[in-house]
Amino acid sequence: MKRRDFLLQSSATLLALASGMEQAMSTTNPEEPTMETPITLFLCGDVMTGRGIDQLLPHPSEPQLYEPYIRNAQRYVELGEEINGTIAKPVSFDYIWGDALSRLEQAAPDVRIINLETSVTASNNYWPYKGINYRMHPKNIACLTAAKIDCCVLANNHILDWGYAGLTETLHALTSAGIKTAGAGATLQQAQSPAILDAPSKGRVIVIACGTISSGISSEWAAQSRKAGVYLLTDLSRRMVDYIATIVHQSKRPGDVAVLSIHWGGNWGYEIPQEHIELAHMLIDSASVDILHGHSSHHPLGLEVYKGKLILYGCGDFLNDYEGIGGHEYYRGDLSLMYFASIAPATGKLAGLEMAPMQIKRFKLNRASQDDASWLQHTLNEQSRRFNCHIELTSDQMLKAVY
Q1: Which residues are registered as beta bridge partners of 344?
Q2: Does the pLDDT value for residue 22 go beyond 90?
Q3: In 3-state terms, what secondary structure has residue 105?
């Protein structure tokens, strides 16, 4: 072969190889994250499957309570039935989710995250002088898997209602059911460890959970290096932000969506403390947090989109057994929201937020009426205006954030 022909053939071969390598590099494995398709998260506030709701399920706990006024959990069921009619018992495990199941199926979120505000235990070692002690029997754990919950946030003021034995059993029950947890553990390191959730072909969601004393969490419940408990923030200072930043940076990879789930503030009222706003902003500015998932309020609070990142200051109760209890009717605690947030994994910025209005009635979630959906839209819009975020009601009775 002549030298000129050899060089031409070699050049053609190299070009072909280069072209093939370029094509291979540009072809994305469908199993690998692309960082282009938004990751959709389902988020909600407090899910209280204990006490009255537990009594409706197939395996109710012993009904004895240690509250000042009500000593039997079955009484909460009776109070609700007196208002909205008798419920055939036991209910199925999926009963409590009601219309929320079809909403979840329609939205098809990649991950589903709730704040589980109850202990999952058969322990009788209740925390003395607590006043309220929520527990669900471990055999009723299927009520959570029925909604395909991926992660339960546990850094709240009810997870230790039945002592350390109750916390240990809660962690075991959830793990055995394939549900990841964040915010509580056998040590501080475990309580601070993020839950890592996969969104196949899209990326990952990492969930870090913590709580504050302002939500009712006892300082005794704070996890330590050799003591079980919850990840409790002693204050809302820059120092706390730096601690959280370290946790995020140790876990977060390019394309991950970082959620900071926090139980903070009181139960009633729309006022958002300035220190909550400042902490939320610092977490986004300095700790690489993409979503702040706030809860503790019994009704939804205003929301903000700060530098493209979503801040839910208070998601409100999502499911509880308050149906027959009077008081605070002004806030419509019977109404709740399903939050569907779509996040661009390349930037962590909000690509869209829709919310499904629901009503708790007969101890299950029902689609809110048009009037109730309008009430929620007006209220949430009024509370979010200070953050230049507007809430619209769509033709299919969904709420949509405009920012």
Answers
A1: 349
A2: no
A3: helix
Quick one: average pLDDT of 225-248? 97
E strands in 9-57: 39-47
- What pLDDT score does 129 carry? 92
How big is the CA angle at 22 (ends 18 and 23), to the nearest 5 degrees?
115
Cβ atoms of residues 120 and 174 within 8 Å: yes
pTM, entire model = 0.91
Lowest mean pLDDT among 32-36, 100-104, 254-258, 311-315: 32-36
Phi (first) and psi of residue 24, to 5 degrees: -65, -40
90 cis-preceded (ω within 30 degrees of 0): yes
193 in Cβ contact with 223 (< 8 Å): no
CATH code linked to domain 39-402:
3.60.21.10
CA distances from 75 to 63, 79, 95, 119, 135 (A): 9, 6, 20, 19, 15
CA separation, residue 270 to residues 165, 263, 297, 299 (Å): 36, 16, 9, 9
In 27-71, where does DSSP find H-type helix?
Answer: 52-56
Q: Are 316 and 297 contacting, i.e. CB atoms less than 8 angstroms apart?
A: yes
Report the sign of the C-alpha dihedral through residues 360, 137, 149, 207, in that order: positive
Tokens of 208: 């870090």
pLDDT of residue 32: 57
| Percent share of the chain, pLDDT over 70 | 92
* CA dist list (Å): 327 to 62, 133, 251, 290, 383: 27, 20, 43, 36, 21
pLDDT tens-digit series, residues 254-297 = 999 999 999 999 999 999 999 999 999 999 999 999 999 999 99
Give the number of other CB atoms < 10 A from CB of residue 216. 18
Q: What are the angstrom distances between the C-alpha of 277 and each of 53, 312, 325, 386?
A: 34, 10, 32, 12
- 293: which 2 tokens? 């998932």
In this predicted structure, the answer to whether residue 301 has a pLDDT above a threshold of 70 is yes
CA distance 230 to 160: 9
